[in-house]
Design a protein that fits this description.
This protein has helices at 59-66, 89-95, 112-122, 127-140, 156-168, 186-198, 211-217, 235-239, 242-247; strands spanning 20-27, 36-43, 48-53, 74-79, 82-83, 96-99, 174-178, 203-207, 220-225, 228-234. With 254 residues, it is an alpha/beta fold. The strands form two sheets. It has a six-stranded mixed sheet with strand order 6-7-8-3-9-10, with helices on both faces. Strand 9 and strand 10 (228-234) form a beta hairpin. It binds adenosine-5'-triphosphate (ATP). Residues 29, 35, 53, 55-61, 101 line the site of adenosine-5'-triphosphate.
């Protein structure tokens, strides 16, 4: 991990044992300036990392590149040494659990229980085992009473927790979450933090505007601004550096 620095990309060397390695990633939506310009970083086993950045800075775009939903114009992403490309996506998605910013993108079955059992059933887990596990996960998130209801009958926060249950059911070794606390009250934000801190995963990467919550769940922060990773540092000193956060469009008291 580097210390607080304004341009860490120059100091990143190749880390062949990295869990996630991003090398010189460039991503441009059609006919626009690049949203991501020469992004490079490595995440290692045990890293719990916050991805911070002002609205529209490119956090979701970066996360969607990491799991192969978007394809960079140049650069490369390796997950546990495997290049992320169309032919490796089945292998990548066995390792990586990803929740979308919009939980509705993840819940498409007639009931929540079927959503949570869908992934394990696809990987050949028996119905009885998949259902047991799903009911346990739904209970962990206070959703046991909703198991046989449709996602449309859940609140926004409940949908977000249900979407997280769908990916935890697959026991991913890497967790990538886009705005996991949006719509959650303080008690559920705390509970979610406790759940995440106990998970036996290699790496957690979380994009969020919920800076105080990120400070409880992650140790390291990457800050996106102007299409680049402007900061790669321990999160606690950064959260106390109101001036730097303000300059990056992340005023801490707002
Ligand atoms: N499908 C798209 N087509 C064109 N431009 C897009 C598309 N999706 C996002 N963008 C643009 O890319 C930029 C980055 O968007 P992105 O959603 O990655 O930002 P973000 O940091 O996740 O924002 P937020 O904090 O609001 O979730 C924005 O300027 C946005 O307008």
């Amino acid at each position: 991990m580097t210390s607080l620095t304004s341009n860490p990309q120059t100091s990143i060397s190749h880390r062949h044992n990295a869990v996630i390695e991003v090398q010189n990633l460039v991503y441009t939506y059609s006919h626009q300036e690049p949203v991501l310009k020469e992004i490079s970083f490595s995440l290692n086993a045990g890293d719990r990392v916050a991805l911070m950045g002002a609205t529209g800075s490119g956090k979701s775009t970066l996360l969607e590149n990491l799991i192969g939903l978007k394809h960079p114009q140049s650069g490369a992403i390796y997950i546990n040494g495997t290049l992320v490309e169309p032919k490796t996506l089945p292998q990548i998605r066995k390792q990586v659990g990803f929740t979308f910013q919009d939980a509705n993108d993840q819940l498409f079955m007639p009931t929540i229980l079927e959503d949570v059992t869908f992934g394990p059933r696809n990987y050949g887990v028996s119905p009885a085992i998949a259902i047991d596990k799903a009911l346990q996960l739904l209970a962990d998130f206070g959703l046991e009473a909703y198991a046989r209801r449709s996602a449309h009958e859940l609140s926004g926060g409940q949908r977000r927790l249900a979407a997280l249950a769908t990916i935890l059911a697959l026991e991913p070794s890497i967790l990538i979450l886009d705005e996991p606390t949006a719509g959650l009250d303080p008690a559920w934000r705390r509970h979610l933090a406790q759940v995440l801190l106990k998970l036996p995963v290699q790496v957690i990467l979380i994009a969020s505007h919920d800076l105080h919550w990120l400070g409880r769940v992650t140790q390291r922060a990457l800050v996106l601004s102007g299409g680049c990773i402007q900061i790669d540092s321990q999160i606690q000193p950064l959260l106390q550096d109101g001036k730097t956060l303000d300059q990056l469009g992340l005023p801490v008291d707002w």
